[in-house]
Each structure stands twice: as C-alpha cells, then as structure tokens.
Amino acid sequence: MFQRFAALLLLAASLMGAAQAQQPQTDLQRTKLSVGLYKIDAQVAQTPQQREIGLMFRKEMPQAEGMIFVFDQPATQCFWMRNTLLPLTAAFVADDGRIVNLVDMQPMTENSHCSEEPVRFVLEMNQGWFAKKNIKKGAKLGGELFAASKR
Fold this sequence. Notes:
The protein is built from 4 helices and 9 strands; from the N terminus they run H-E-E-H-E-E-E-E-E-E-H-E-H.
C-alpha cells in the first residue's frame, strides 16, 4: 500500500514538474534599450536557468519587446530554438553595444546560430524587427547594460 502511494506521489510530482517546465518565463527583470530612434523593453536572462529557458514556450511577444541574454565573460555564444514557438532574430552584441552579427532563427529547430566574435550579450527580437527598422551589423545599442560594462 505504501509503495503504491509513494509511486502515485512520484508520478504526480513528475507531471507537475513537466507542466511547470512548459510555462514561458515572463516575470524576469526588465531593462530599457535603444537603437537609433527605436526603444526596446527587454527582459533580462542572466542566470544559467533563465538563459536556458529563454523565450521557450512563448506564443507571442509584442513588437517592441525582446529578451537580452547576459553572460559573465565574452565568448562565442551559440543559440538554438528547441521548444521556441516564435521565429526570432538574434543580435549578438559586444560590450560597447555594437551589433556583431544578426541571425534569423526558425522555430522548433536545433540548428546552432553563433556569434562571429566573442560577446557577452545576445538580444532576441521577433524575426523581422531589425530588418523593418533597417538595423544592421555595426549598429549600436544603448542602455544601462552597455554603460555598466564600460566601467
């Protein structure tokens, strides 16, 4: 009897864990970014767990919103789209806010998309956002994150 009860508890806990894992993270700290005349309201993914989940399971995202991934040290950063439902563009960003490269990423794929040089920041926006605003490689992002990294 006890073994059956323990097995039921274990099953319930694993189902709850799976259900929680399928929830998008929408309660992260936010920061204001700018590029040219355009403003971005970005969620900040700075812990390993926050970066791992990223924009997974998100069904929609407003056009002026995104997520910026912050790493401790500059390195070649590579991203994929497992469990990510939205088509996104990743901007790989140097410490001074310069966009190193832009990469369009397709939903629900495991293709690796990497920075062309070591970076600490990656900004994900809805696919097409940068192109519609004519923002290209070399453009500079502004915001407290980049001012802080100059210190």
